[in-house]
Specification:
Protein name: Transcriptional regulator, TetR family
Helix content: 55-70%
Keywords: DNA-binding, Transcription, Transcription regulation
Largest sheet: none
Order of helices and strands: HHHHHHHHHHH
CATH architecture of the largest domain: Orthogonal Bundle
Organism: Microbispora rosea
GO molecular function: DNA-binding transcription factor activity; transcription cis-regulatory region binding
Strand content: under 5%
CATH class of the largest domain: Mainly Alpha
GO biological process, one term: negative regulation of DNA-templated transcription
Distance between the termini: 43 Å
Number of helices: 11
Length: 210
């Protein structure tokens, strides 16, 4: 990637951090980097390519330069999960963008390939690798998006308090689980448990091959 293109994508990320992803436009970006909108087209042909480039820029920063076979496959996938969560905390709008755009730039595709390699090393059959990659991405990005948006926390909506206003006796599942639903959320512990469950699922798929 050229230095000028990196500068442009970094400027787009900064605009999104300051004003939200909806405010990222070719005009706003041109103003940020001090050029005319037409001058941007030498580096990004349109808004779609800009957004794809932002996805690639975000994903490229998830893994260290020595990512690959430096650690066991499960350690690498866990590290990736933590990196996505950290990235979403730094850029709360990023999960929305990652869910809305495919991984098509070289940087983005390399990250997907690292997941493929980890799954293959785990012994997952080739035919199941793409499905499990989608499952991993959906879980990790979904958790990060829910956390960043406040869906998992009480926030101003206070879902736990509102849940108490529901009619008694009509929701037997909620009634039985009430003591657990009212416990404070420990998202760090929950994320680790979810990752462990996901890794066990991968091992189960690998172990169940014909």
């Amino acid at each position: 990637m050229s230095g000028r293109r990196e500068e442009i994508l970094d400027a787009a990320l900064a605009i999104a951090d300051e004003h939200g992803i909806g405010k990222v436009s070719m005009r706003a970006l041109a103003e940020r980097v001090g050029v005319t909108p037409m001058a941007l087209y030498r580096h990004v042909s349109d808004k779609a390519e800009l957004l794809d480039g932002m996805v690639g820029r975000l994903l490229a920063g998830l893994l260290p330069p020595d990512a690959g076979k430096a650690r066991a496959w499960d350690e690498r996938l866990a590290a990736l999960g933590h990196a996505v969560r950290t990235m979403a905390r730094r850029h709360p709008w990023a999960a929305q963008l990652l869910f809305s755009r495919p991984a098509v730039t070289p940087d983005a595709v390399r990250v997907v390939d690292l997941i493929y390699i980890a799954l293959l090393e785990a012994g997952v059959p080739d035919r199941e690798v793409p499905r499990l990659e989608r499952l991993i991405a959906t879980f990790v990005i979904g958790f990060a998006a829910s956390e960043a948006s406040g869906r998992f926390g009480s926030g101003s909506v206070d879902p736990r308090g509102r849940r108490g206003l529901l009619p008694e006796g009509e929701l037997p599942g909620h009634s039985r689980l009430a003591p657990w639903l009212d416990l404070p959320s420990d998202l760090d512990t929950e994320f680790e448990a979810d990752l462990d469950d996901l890794l066990r699922l991968i091992k189960a798929v690998a172990g169940g091959q014909d």
